[in-house]
Amino acid sequence: MSDNNHYFETNRATWNTKVKEHSKSDMYNIKAFKEGKSSLMSYELKALSDVKDKSLLHLQCHFGQDTLSWSRLGAKCVGVDLSDEGIKLAQQLNKELKLDAEFVCCNVLETSKYVNNTFDIVFTSYGVIGWLPDLKPWGKMIAERLKKGGTFYMAEFHPIVWMFDYREGKSIMRYGYMQDEVIYEEYEGTYANQDAKMTSKEYGWNHGLSEVINALTEAGLHIDYLNEYDECPYNVLPDLEQTKSGMYATKDKLYPLIFEIKATKF
């Protein structure tokens, strides 16, 4: 962990700034959220159709909109995130909306140091594992925090998506699907507002599907299913077109944009 501290601290600083920009963006639309609109997407709502009275741990929760959306559906939620500004805003929203979620600021890989409970569900989604240099401790932590018979669910951008550099407003294949080396990117703005007056400085890592699957199975989880989709809930990549379902896809649909995994701890 210590070898990666510089990467994590750089990312934390960027995410602290992103929280300020995202909280006033159209994409996150806090006004509609406060008025009752759920931030959850169809993939996760279908996979976790009944969370009422279940305990749920949300990994890398940003400023808590999804955590609080699960809370509105009756789950007893704990959200964790690296960004102290994100956790601070999540706690404010929780209080304002009179919900009962808890939020913890920590590196997701160190969750077990800060969260002792075990959960019926561990959940994570969209742009999460790319911030982690090694998925084995991630898988181990998930298994530690799940109750026996508990469910892990993730919806995430497909590894092929991260082979491209999008900084020039177009998709340029630049990074390896199985690349071990850290990737550094610096650009103006953020995915929720490209015109935001901020500089994003980010360190990330690419992880192929086999690495994701192996990290979970080696930790003792059974994979219930792995699905891949060529439609994405977010219009955050260049040249996506809206589909009849209201999602977004590349014009030619040559590769998947999203994958989902559901797993059980036996």
UniProtKB/TrEMBL annotation:
<dbReference type="GO" id="GO:0008757">
    <property type="term" value="F:S-adenosylmethionine-dependent methyltransferase activity"/>
</dbReference>
<dbReference type="GO" id="GO:0032259">
    <property type="term" value="P:methylation"/>
</dbReference>
<keyword id="KW-0808">Transferase</keyword>
<dbReference type="Pfam" id="PF08241">
    <property type="entry name" value="Methyltransf_11"/>
</dbReference>
<feature type="domain" description="Methyltransferase type 11">
    <location>
        <begin position="58"/>
        <end position="153"/>
    </location>
</feature>
<dbReference type="InterPro" id="IPR013216">
    <property type="entry name" value="Methyltransf_11"/>
</dbReference>
<protein>
    <submittedName>
        <fullName>Type 12 methyltransferase</fullName>
    </submittedName>
</protein>
<dbReference type="InterPro" id="IPR029063">
    <property type="entry name" value="SAM-dependent_MTases_sf"/>
</dbReference>
<keyword id="KW-0489">Methyltransferase</keyword>
